[in-house]
Design a protein that fits this description.
single chain; mainly beta; 9 strands; three-stranded antiparallel beta sheet; about 35% strand; four-stranded antiparallel beta sheet
């Protein structure tokens, strides 16, 4: 759910990429699949629905990285903070999942959250809060 103030946009992968992610920006390595795909765990989404779609890293990508970028978000003001809640599943000890923030005046991506080194094999949820006075991508 991408929340800015009272409006909340739910983001799923049932028909394609969701609106918040850049279209055609699915980098090599990301696969849109569901639990019935025969590709191993997870066998359902975070609601235990085996036909619901999610994004997964291909097994060919075990030793490299792949990025997902959002569309451009507009600046926040004092009343509106952006909150992004996402569900994730880590099935490799060596994997690291990172969330970065790139403000439009900066070339660099600032790491704002990460998790690694835990073999969890279960869905977890995390919410990040972003406050930016300029346009940005996540």
């Amino acid at each position: 759910c991408f929340n800015s103030g009272s409006s909340c946009e739910k983001c799923d992968f049932e028909t394609d990429l969701c609106k918040a992610l850049r279209e055609l920006n699915l980098q090599p390595g990301w696969i849109r699949r569901n639990g019935r795909s025969g590709m191993g765990p997870p066998y359902s989404d975070h609601n235990a629905n085996d036909s619901a779609y999610f994004l997964s890293l291909s097994s060919k990508m075990r030793s490299s990285s792949a990025t997902l970028r959002t569309n451009v978000f507009l600046p926040n003001d004092e009343e509106h903070v952006c909150q992004i809640t996402f569900h994730y599943w880590i099935s490799q000890m060596s994997g690291t999942l990172m969330v970065g923030l790139q403000k439009h005046s900066e070339d660099t991506i600032t790491n704002i959250w990460q998790v690694s080194g835990e073999l969890q094999n279960q869905w977890k949820a995390n919410t990040i809060t972003i406050n930016s006075t300029e346009k940005y991508e996540v």
